[in-house]
Amino acid sequence: MKNTFVVSCPLDTYSGYGARSRDFVKALIELDEYDVQILSQRWGKCSEGFIENNEEWGFLSKYIIPQLMQKPDYWCQITVPNEFSPVGKYNIGLTAGMETTIVDGSWVEGCNKMDLILTSSEHSKNVFETSQFNKEGTDKIIKLEKPIEVLIEGLNLDTFKPIKEFKNKDLFNQINSIPEEFAYLTVGHWMQGEIGEDRKNIGLTIKSFYELFKNRKNPPALILKCCIVNGSILDKSEILRRINIIKDGVPEARSLPKIYLLHGNFTDPEINELYNHPKVKAMISLTKGEGFGRPLLEFSAINKPIITTKWSGHMDFLKEEKVGYINGTLEKIHPTAVVQNMIIPEASWYKPNLGDVGYLFNNVFEDYKNWLEKSKSQGFHSRKNFSFEVMKNQIENIFKKNLTPLPKKLELKIPNIKMPNKPKSNLKKV
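Structure (tokenized):
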């Protein structure tokens, strides 16, 4: 019998960790080395129901177990490290890592409870390896003591690819109805923090867009695929409120370019159709830091230009000469963006140079053909080196290198015993 491999993860959620979970367990199943079981967990306040709404992932349902009945051979948690808990004979912690320069001490302590740590990028790996803390009240130094490996987030090439046919007519027509022929796209959660201080930097993206293209004849549009936590009406209302605050603060604005909000949960094929829409010309992300940067990888596969910051996880797959990188500096986390036991005030992240933001916003808009040609090469690189199949091979190699061999359970086989022929009776019925 195969060794049991239980994965505790937010399998059914609309979140980056949810997508990571689905890819990982799918790869495990396809490797066919383990008896794979899934404990499906929540992920904060993120919406659930992804499996039901995405039929291509429905097969995962049969691997879900209601609870853990016995100690598994291999145990993997896909979550933030301060939640890691060793449950199996061999324990793996899988995390996107951290978007800042250091992680909280509880994250390092959580990692040290496990046998192996997997993270999404060289940036995250380096942050874990260099984060050190003094144990309060002692002379002990807390640092990472367990092996850590980079496991990329693999691109599903059957889903994220250039297309010409659009199945979701409502989505297509919705975007097609905007009068502008050129639209930038921003994707991400609008997290906590004052304008210009939230991690995805959506507030600064909107502010920069308004100020750069105000009072212009025939400006581009900005499509914002965004939520704060979930797809609720209140969530949408709060985003619109924030946009209006920024809008009202733009000086000397006789006219402003248009921003269009796409809110709610999308399937993966719908996201790909959004990326491929002919009016969506480029993606812009002024992110302060990424553990990996999954939407950037997905969009790169479409062969369209990307403008983003020159720091953190996405630099593993975005080639400098093929995308519009924004220079900048590291700055301390603003108090409004601090999250307890996660984004800590002692850490730093990226502050994009506003001159670069303005130059690239304009240059991609005005010299689009040149940027489009560059993006084709980036798309080829992403599809070749960061696919699901590449990720699956990485899992296999990492496990061969690190996993402690465990004895396989013996399957009791009862031999087929041939019963002897009954002797024929000489008695006759009277």
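Residues 180 and 282 are 14 Å apart (CA to CA). The first strand starts at residue 4 and ends at 9.
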